[in-house]
Amino acid sequence: xxxxxxxxSGDGIGPEIMKQGIAxxxxxxEKFGHEFTYYEAICGADAIDKVGDPFPETTYQICKDADAVxxxxxxxxxxxNDPTAKIRPEQGLLAMRKKLGLYANIRPIQTFRCLLHMxxxxxELVRDADFICIxxxxxxxxxxxxxQDDDKAYDTxxxxxxxxxxxxxxxxxxxxxxxKHLTVVDKANVLASSRLWRQIAHEMEPMYPEVNVDYMFxxxxxxxxxxxxSFFDVMVTExxxxxxxxxxxxxxxxxxxxxxxxxxxxxxxxxEPVHGSWPQATGKNIANPLAEILSVAMLLEHFNMxxxxxxxxxxxxxxxxxxxxxxxxxxxxxxxxxxREVGEWIVSYIKNK
Length: 353
Prior knowledge:
- The chain has helices at 14-32, 44-51, 57-65, 77-80, 89-99, 123-126, 161-177, 192-204, 218-227, 239-250, 290-302, 306-321, 339-352, and strands spanning 2-10, 35-40, 68-73, 104-110, 130-136, 146-148, 153-155, 181-186, 212-217, 234-237, 260-264, 270-273.
- The model has no long low-confidence stretch (mean pLDDT 95).
- It has 13 helices and twelve strands.
- By secondary structure, the chain is α/β, with parallel strands linked by helices.
- Helix 9 runs parallel beside helix 10 (239-250), helix 11 (290-302) runs antiparallel to helix 12 (306-321) and helix 12 crosses helix 13 (339-352).
- The chain folds into two domains: 1-102 and 265-353, 3-Layer(aba) Sandwich (Isopropylmalate Dehydrogenase); 107-259, 3-Layer(aba) Sandwich (Isopropylmalate Dehydrogenase).
- It has a ten-stranded mixed β-sheet, with helices on both faces. Strands 6-7 form a two-stranded antiparallel sheet.
């Protein structure tokens, strides 16, 4: 298969983990006879410094014309620590999602058997955790009308029926592929927008008679994810709630450096790790590349390269079982492996299988 891949390394540790993701893609291409062509583009703080725009038009065109986008991370403390900044790296993410029509973020939450002890939760709670969070990406407060002055501010949590229907369809469809259990997360006891979400979900239930649907307020869902994460199979929710819940869920595995994600919709799909840019670790060769590498697996699987995706997942599992790990998840007294060494080990595994 031939694919054109837009490569957005971004900020902080982004270029380091991206290098390992591309190395894995190249190993897969060589082994299976694929042809992947890469088109690098700037984004985030790097793009602001260079052209004053976190998602410039040239980057958009590269993404729009590609078959997929492989993304790393954006963010820099000089913007985080300046509440008056008018342009921020994260605005590039929002612009990319909006311009590419990426309304659904797919985040698998899973644990790894050899890392159960790394989770902040008890092992017996997380042992069977394996679910997917589906977050609406282009509506809600992040994109609604905004206002701020020195005395007041507001963000409008605006949703339309078509926006809700299309993301709920993604949720129902994923539930049909898995255990046929869908949890719709909202705040319908307080928010009008949530009541519309719940109303439309009820209307769609008869279209999926095999799916067991339950409804949960977001505060209850956040608690349930901690005390009983194995309850969930597929969770679907609006933008703001999804942002918070997916970060909470990512900690179940023991490290945000282990989990990938996909953003899909009407335009070019984007595949990226769930973690941030971790600027403090830039250039230190300590960042975990596995989330980026697993994002590559999701990208390949999106194009029905299932054997290739499985080989990457097997390589990641074996690296963890063999203690080929970056410092934040390494066992006490274990050998030190950096970003580069972990990536090289996985590439070698792929080539020799």
